[in-house]
TrEMBL record:
Transmembrane intervals: 13-33, 69-93, 99-122, 143-161, 181-199, 211-232, 238-262, 299-327, 347-375, 387-407, 413-432
Keyword Transmembrane helix in record: yes
Domain of life: Bacteria
Main location: membrane
Single GO term (MF): amino acid:sodium symporter activity
Bilayer topology term: Multi-pass membrane protein
Name of a matching Pfam family: Na_Ala_symp
Protein family membership: Belongs to the alanine or glycine:cation symporter (AGCS) (TC 2.A.25) family.
Name by which UniProt lists this protein: Sodium:alanine symporter
PROSITE patterns: NA_ALANINE_SYMP
Length: 460
C-alpha cells in the first residue's frame, strides 16, 4: 500500500509541476490575446462595474445579487491557500515566487472571465426556480458534449468528498491547538452549522457569505495593514526581494535553503492557481446564479475575485512573512505551514496567532460551505434535485470523519482528482473561445452595455 501511495504522490507532484502549469499558462495567454488584453485595457471600468456598483440595484435576471455571487465564489477561493500556501511558495521557491503568483493571476483573469461568461450564457432554471450553470452546462449546451459534462460533474462531486474531509481536518486541528476543543466536537458543530445554511440553497448561502467574506477578509487584511504601517520602511525592500529573485535562482539565506529558477516559477504559478481557482470551473457555478443583464458584466465580477484573492490577500500574507524575516529562521523549511502564524505573533504576540487562527477558521468554514453547494449542483445535474440533498448529507458526514483524521490516506489523490476536473474545463473554454469573444465584442460594441455605461453611443 505504501508503495502505491508513493507512486500516486510522485505522479501528482509531476503532473502539477511543468505539465499543468504549461497548460494553464498557455491557455491563459491564448485567451488574453483572443480577448484583446481586456484586463489590462479596462481595469478602472471593471472596478466601477463591480465594487463601484455594490449599492446599485442590479439589472437583468438572476437568483442572487452580483456581489453575493462574488462572495460565494470568494468563499471557496479564500482559504488555507492564502494563509498556508503563500509561505510554502516562499520557502520552496523563494521570494521571487510571489512575482510569478501575480503573473499567473493577471493571465488567469482571462480564463476566469471566459468560464464565468459561458456559465451565465448557458445557464438554466432548476425545479426550485433558481438559476444554475457551470462547466457541465456549457459542455452540454455549448459543445453538445454531454459526456464531457458528465465526466466533469462526476469527478468534481467525488473530489469534493476528500476535499471537505481535508478542510474539516484543518479547522478541527487549528481549533484544538489554539483553544483545546476536541476535534470531534469541532467536526460535529461545523457540520451542523453548515447543514443549516446549505440546505437553504444559494439564496441563503449568498446572504451568509456577503456578511462573512468581507468580515473575515477585513480582519485578516486589517491585521496585515497595521503591520504594513508599522513597517513602511520595509516596503522598498519587500519589492526588491521579490523582483530580484523573480528571474534568478534564490540564494541561501539563513534557514532558507535556496531555490532553482524553475522552482521559483513553478511554486509561484502553482500556489497562485490553487488560490484563485482560475480555469478550474468551480467559481462559474456561483456566478451563474447572479442577477445580470449580460454574461460579460458578471464575468467582470469573476475577474475582481482574482484581484481580492491573489493580488490583495496573498500579497498581504507575503508582506507579513517576508518583512518579519521568519522565512530565514532555522527550521522554517520544515514548518512552512505555520510561518504566517509565527510572523503575526512576531508583531502582535499571542493576539497575532489568535488572529490568524480565527481567520483560518472563518476561511475554511466558508470554503466548506460553498464547495458543498458546488457538489450539490453536480448531483442535481447528474441525477436531479433530490440527489443534491443526499450528496449534501454525505459531505456533512465527511466533515466529521475528516475532523477526526480519516482523510490522510485520501490526501494524496486530491491533486489528481483536481486535474480530472481542470483539463476538461480548459478544453471546453478553448473550444468555446469564439463564443466568449463574440459575447465580449457584443458587450463592448452595443449601445445597451459598455457604450451606454461610458456615456457614448454609436449615434454620437
Amino acid at each position: 500500500m505504501e508503495g502505491f501511495i508513493n507512486v500516486v504522490t510522485t505522479f501528482s507532484a509531476w503532473l502539477w509541476g511543468i505539465p499543468l502549469i504549461a497548460v494553464l499558462l498557455f491557455s491563459g495567454l491564448y485567451m488574453t490575446f483572443k480577448l484583446g488584453f481586456f484586463q489590462f485595457r479596462h481595469p478602472l471600468y471593471i472596478f466601477k462595474q463591480t465594487f463601484g456598483s455594490v449599492t446599485k440595484k442590479p439589472k437583468g435576471k438572476g437568483t442572487v445579487t452580483p456581489f453575493q455571487a462574488l462572495t460565494s465564489a470568494l468563499s471557496s477561493t479564500i482559504g488555507a491557500a492564502n494563509i498556508v500556501g503563500v509561505p510554502a511558495a516562499i520557502m520552496f521557491g523563494g521570494p521571487g515566487a510571489v512575482f510569478w503568483m501575480w503573473v499567473i493571476a493577471l493571465v488567469g483573469m482571462s480564463l476566469k472571465f471566459s468560464e464565468s461568461a459561458l456559465a451565465v450564457h448557458y445557464r438554466e432554471k432548476n425545479e426550485k426556480g433558481e438559476y444554475v450553470g457551470g462547466p457541465m452546462y456549457y459542455m452540454t449546451k455549448g459543445l453538445g458534449m454531454k459526456w464531457l459534462g458528465i465526466w466533469f460533474s462526476f469527478a468534481l462531486m467525488l473530489e469534493l468528498i476528500p476535499s471537505v474531509m481535508v478542510q474539516g481536518n484543518s479547522v478541527a486541528n487549528t481549533v484544538n491547538e489554539s483553544f483545546g476543543v476536541p476535534v470531534l466536537w469541532t467536526g460535529i458543530i461545523i457540520a451542523v452549522l453548515i447543514g443549516i445554511i446549505v440546505f437553504g440553497g444559494i439564496k441563503r448561502i449568498g446572504q451568509v457569505t456577503q456578511v462573512v467574506v468581507p468580515f473575515m477578509a477585513l480582519i485578516y487584511i486589517g491585521g496585515a495593514l497595521v503591520i504594513l504601517f508599522m513597517n513602511l520602511g520595509a516596503l522598498p525592500e519587500f519589492f526588491t526581494l521579490i523582483f530580484s529573485n523573480a528571474f534568478s535562482p534564490a540564494p541561501v539565506i539563513g534557514g532558507f535553503a535556496g531555490a532553482a529558477l524553475v522552482d521559483v516559477i513553478r511554486w509561484g504559478f502553482a500556489r497562485g492557481l490553487y488560490s484563485n481557482e482560475a480555469g478550474l470551473g468551480t467559481a462559474p457555478m456561483a456566478h451563474s446564479a447572479a442577477t445580470t443583464d449580460h454574461p460579460v458584466r458578471q464575468a467582470f465580477w469573476a475577474v475582481s475575485g482574482i484581484v481580492v484573492d491573489t493580488l490583495i490577500i496573498c500579497t498581504a500574507t507575503a508582506f507579513v512573512v517576508l518583512s518579519s524575516g521568519v522565512w530565514t529562521d532555522e527550521g522554517a523549511m520544515e514548518n512552512s505551514s505555520a510561518l504566517t502564524t509565527i510572523a503575526f505573533a512576531e508583531y502582535f504576540g499571542e493576539f497575532g496567532s489568535i488572529l490568524v487562527t480565527v481567520s483560518l477558521v472563518f476561511f475554511v468554514f466558508s470554503t466548506i460551505l460553498v464547495v458543498i453547494f458546488y457538489g450539490a449542483k453536480q448531483a442535481e445535474f447528474l441525477f436531479g434535485l433530490k440527489a443534491s440533498y443526499a450528496i449534501q448529507a454525505v459531505y456533512l458526514i465527511a466533515i466529521v470523519f475528516g475532523a477526526v483524521g480519516a482523510a490522510e490516506l485520501i490526501w494524496n489523490f486530491l491533486d489528481i482528482m483536481l486535474a480530472a476536473i481542470l483539463l476538461p474545463n480548459i478544453l471546453a473554454i478553448l473550444l468555446l473561445s469564439n463564443k466568449v469573444k463574440e459575447l465580449k465584442t457584443e458587450f463592448f460594441t452595443s449601445d445597451k452595455y459598455y457604450l451606454k455605461d461610458i456615456g457614448k453611443t454609436k449615434g454620437k
